[in-house]
Amino acid sequence: MKSETSSSKGKSVPQFLPRVLATRKALLEGARRAFVEHGGFAQTSIDAIVARSQSSLGSLYNQYGSKAEIFLALYEDYHSKLWQVSHAAIQGSRDAGEPDPLRQYLEGLKAYLRECWEERDLTKLFYWGDTAPGFELLARDTLRLWIAENFDQLALDDKKNGELLAAAVTATVGAGARAICDSRTREEAATVADFYAELVTRLVMPTLEAERLN
């Protein structure tokens, strides 16, 4: 029996790959429901994840290795979605002809915060829930990535002070992510996102104006 099948482009694709991807997706979705329902990592059993995913214990260990690993994979998936949403909004602003890096960035910021609200069960879990071993290290690495990204997106010139400002902006956005979870409607969430965009504008404008003068 052949183990591979050819795609329309002539490349070989393992026949089992779609099944593996479907299993991983089901396990992540089941883990999300279980961790949120039980309020965090420690309170959630492996059996609960397996039950919510309608998968098997063997599949969980085969795909993720442990309960901690699937928790971290869930966080990485959440972070990846936020990253993609914010970048798409920034690129959309550029494509629409917006030349100002700050205004481009603010569109990405608001999209990021709105997505935090859409994914508020996970936002609450990762900010306030009981987390897995290794989560703090992963979260710190993610924070450093966002600080570097904000430095680049805002087109800051001064390396030292620019990094400090990017860190302050990142902290402000994090506060917005926590605050937006209390919004009861999508419209209310959009108002919160606009408020934090204004805060970031006030935070960075003095530095940006000084750099332009120099």
From TrEMBL:
Superkingdom of the organism of origin: Bacteria
Annotated keywords: DNA-binding, Transcription, Transcription regulation
Start-end of DNA-binding region: 45-64
Residue stretches making up the HTH tetR-type domain: 21-82
Entry-linked SUPFAM superfamilies: Homeodomain-like
Transmembrane spans: none
UniProt keyword Magnesium, yes or no: no
One Pfam match: TetR_N
Gene3D superfamilies named in the record: Tetracycline Repressor, domain 2 (1.10.357.10)
The protein, known as: AcrR family transcriptional regulator
Organism: Enteractinococcus fodinae
